[in-house]
Amino acid sequence: MNSILKSVIGLRVKGSCISGTFIRTLAGCAAEAPRKKEFPRTMKMSGWEIHSYGGIDELQFSDNIRIPQIQQGSEVMIRIKAASINPLDVDMIGGYGAALLNTLRRGDIEFPLRLGRDFVGEVIYRGIGAPRNIKLGDTVWGVVPVHKQGCHSEYLVTDSSYISHKPQSLSDQEASGVLYAGLTAWSGLFLSGDLGNVCNMLRSGGRSEKKKRVLILGASGGVGSMAVQIARYEKAQVFATASADAKELLSQLGVDTAIDYRDEQFLSQIHSHGPYDIILDCAGYGPTFASTIKCDFTSYVTFSSPLLKNTDSHGLLGGSIRNAMSLIEENAKGRVQNTGRGTVKWGYFLPMKLGIEYLKKLADRNQLQCVVDSVYGFDRAIEAYQRVKDGHLRGKIILDLS
Ligand SMILES: NC(=O)c1ccc[n+]([C@@H]2O[C@H](COP(=O)([O-])OP(=O)(O)OC[C@H]3O[C@@H](n4cnc5c(N)ncnc54)[C@H](OP(=O)(O)O)[C@@H]3O)[C@@H](O)[C@H]2O)c1
């Protein structure tokens, strides 16, 4: 109970202190059904927001943000301890995906917009429908769907299906960098790439039976480094590309064969190690690279889908049609050339409970690490976003709110 009170005391009330009566009321009703007006409207939190699209200088710090309210019984309120910054956050400042995301928001206000997709924090309030094993004071890791307000703020309300207990093997900062990239890699390898049986993979016997050959393009990045570890756990033979200075990192992650993408012989090296069951593009090459590499594969999965860009430029319907057309075109090329090329597919981040549990299982078995490039204090978020924008990271960029 002390930790709950400490958390609650951490909340700010504009212009006044929280009274002892309010704390008792709040602590006393914490396990009851959520009531919309549980927190006074005057209660504020701090966070980073944008008020219009543009460059990183659009980010503004505010300590006058209304604390989000629990609206559904299955939701929980979390005090954020650490959160990561992903390339998507930087892209969203520029308006990336706004057309589709506004459709998904179903009338929720677009601005001010808070970014941040994955976090570690403490549960300070839970709806009556939240799972019983999620208790007040528990430390959880979680992820925020892309159309929801992000977690680069002191508090977050999210559905309990997007959180689970933080794995013990990872520090708060490490764990906060896993889920957005990890769920993207998981969905690309299992749902698009057919690495193994998605229904069996939570059981101990669910690992891929045949040793698959997996090539990961951009293996030193957030998504790529998660994909390497998943593929290794599934006993695949892992080939990976990154720049030469990431070679040590790749071998530490368990890559069998590293290829330098700046080497003149890059394409011929990829070709000589083929064929591959799965090629996972985590380097932004897109679908056309499947033709450039001229080697056989069963699935080529790219995370650089033009869906969001196309819907930004051509609207929801026009953009979706263009997206489908580009995939059909790329796959038709393979058929015409009559090579051993398989199917070109998109991969997407999916905030699925099954994926969160899978990644937790790997971490609990000490089979998942999160390499942290640097940790920034919450007040230095602008520098941290700039570091992500500059790219060529050696691990994740983390914001520390503890
Ligand atoms: N569709 C989705 O839902 C979804 C979700 C998440 C991410 N993504 C996309 O997936 C990609 C990876 O995301 P991330 O978070 O892992 O990004 P990241 O951490 O910035 O990693 C990027 C990787 O690409 C490599 N790279 C950079 N420039 C390259 C080049 N010219 N040629 C070859 N490789 C290059 C980097 O290697 P070096 O550092 O060694 O240069 C690094 O390994 C991004 O394009 C991102 O937008 C899509």
Write the layout of secondary structure elements.
Elements: H1 2-10, E1 12-13, H2 20-29, E2 43-49, E3 60-66, E4 75-85, H3 87-93, H4 98-105, E5 118-126, E6 139-143, E7 155-159, E8 163-165, H5 172-176, H6 179-192, E9 213-217, H7 222-233, E10 237-242, H8 247-253, E11 257-260, H9 266-273, E12 276-281, H10 289-292, E13 297-302, H11 307-337, E14 341-346, H12 353-364, E15 372-377, H13 381-390, E16 396-400
Parallel strand pairs: 9-10, 9-12, 10-11, 12-13, 13-14, 15-16
Antiparallel strand pairs: 1-2, 2-3, 4-5, 4-7, 4-16, 5-6, 6-8
Bound molecules: NADP nicotinamide-adenine-dinucleotide phosphate (NAP).
Biggest pleated-sheet summary: 7 strands, mixed
CA-based gyration radius: 22 Å
**Approximate strand percentage:** 15-25%
Number of strands: 16
Oligomer: single chain
**Helix coverage percent:** 25-40%
Give the overall silhouette.
Answer: globular
Helix segment tally: 13
**Uncertain residue segments:** 1-37
Residue-averaged pLDDT, rounded?
87
Structural class: alpha/beta
What is the string of helix and strand elements? HEHEEEHHEEEEHHEHEHEHEHEHEHEHE
Walk me through this protein's architecture:
This protein has helices at residues 2-10, 20-29, 87-93, 98-105, 172-176, 179-192, 222-233, 247-253, 266-273, 289-292, 307-337, 353-364, 381-390, and strands spanning 12-13, 43-49, 60-66, 75-85, 118-126, 139-143, 155-159, 163-165, 213-217, 237-242, 257-260, 276-281, 297-302, 341-346, 372-377, 396-400. It is α/β, with parallel strands linked by helices and 402 residues long. The strands form three sheets. Strands 4, 5, 6, 7, 8, 15 and 16 form a seven-stranded mixed beta sheet that branches. A six-stranded parallel beta sheet has the order 11-10-9-12-13-14, with helices on both faces. Strand 9, helix 7 and strand 10 (237-242) form a beta-alpha-beta unit. Helix 4 (98-105) crosses helix 11 (307-337) and helix 6 packs across helix 7. The longest helix has 31 residues, at 307-337. The relative contact order is 0.14. The site of NADP nicotinamide-adenine-dinucleotide phosphate (NAP) has 27 residues, from helix 3, helix 6 and helix 7. NADP nicotinamide-adenine-dinucleotide phosphate binds next to helix 3, helix 6 and helix 7.
